[in-house]
């Protein structure tokens, strides 16, 4: 795997450097314009009056703090806190801003999203692009297999595994500048539910195997049950349960986006899920028991993961490790 990744890093990925430079400049000007217009909102004036400073500003990057936003919304404006941070402070993260949903909160979210596109994605590719000896501009991301304990790969400089795909605006902004070598075209392939398939291979769950053989979509099934989008059901219900979560945490993750969803409905879905996939549950329990007896877990690839592992890591690691091996 490391040899494969070394070859990928050496070959590099062609990019349109001029596109990224122009897009970076365009986003910079757009963000400056939006920040200049923030004074049409009473909230900006209230914060300035109370603290003597701007709620948001920009030099080489945008400055807006969660602490300042929490002061504004929950102290100065007297709103009821929506959730707390791990350190028991009032949260004002993007989920909270989305739920507040005032014109001012939406404007702050818009600026933050543009800034993430500008700095993390566009700026990262622009800054790491180099002119190779073949006359092509390329990025040469690092790809590693030795950092995650499950042997799942990571990427950096820039992180090529963190290219946006679910937000259409961000997807178009970032991916437009990734180009093929002259005389070639870019191709795209989906591994077709390998993660779910690997769970079936490990657990030998008859329902997973039957569904895979018949081309069924387990994520859409539970999306229909919960009345959510397919991606949310996939990430926040199916895989969440398969990797050790339970209905209360799942409900907390889905409730903000789906206010009509009830905790009781999620609890019912969890019971039905484990009733259907008994084999997967039995495999998880057997893996945990085996780890406590042997002190390691073993993957299909032959790798053994030792050391302290939580319940979630015990059932997650063999699947994630084999998922990476299949991708290679």
Helix and strand arrangement:
Blueprint: H1 2-11, E1 13-14, H2 17-36, H3 42-51, E2 57-58, E3 62-63, H4 66-76, H5 94-100, H6 103-128, E4 130-131, E5 137-139, E6 142-144, E7 154-156, H7 168-175, H8 194-203, H9 206-213, H10 218-226, H11 230-242, H12 247-255, H13 263-276, H14 278-294, E8 296-298, E9 304-306, H15 311-327
Antiparallel strand pairs: 1-5, 2-3, 4-5, 6-7, 8-9
Helix pairs in contact: 2-6, 3-4, 5-6, 8-9, 8-14, 8-15, 10-11, 11-12, 12-13
What can you see in these coordinates?
The chain has helices at 2-11, 17-36, 42-51, 66-76, 94-100, 103-128, 168-175, 194-203, 206-213, 218-226, 230-242, 247-255, 263-276, 278-294, 311-327, and strands spanning 13-14, 57-58, 62-63, 130-131, 137-139, 142-144, 154-156, 296-298, 304-306. With 328 residues, it is mainly alpha-helical. The longest helix has 26 residues, at 103-128. The N and C termini lie close together (7 Å). α8 packs across α9 and α8 crosses α14. The model has no long low-confidence stretch (mean pLDDT 90). The strands form four sheets. A three-stranded antiparallel β-sheet has the order 1-5-4. A two-stranded antiparallel ribbon has the order 2-3. It is built from 15 helices and nine strands.
Notable features of this structure?
mainly alpha, 7% strand, 9 strands, 328 residues
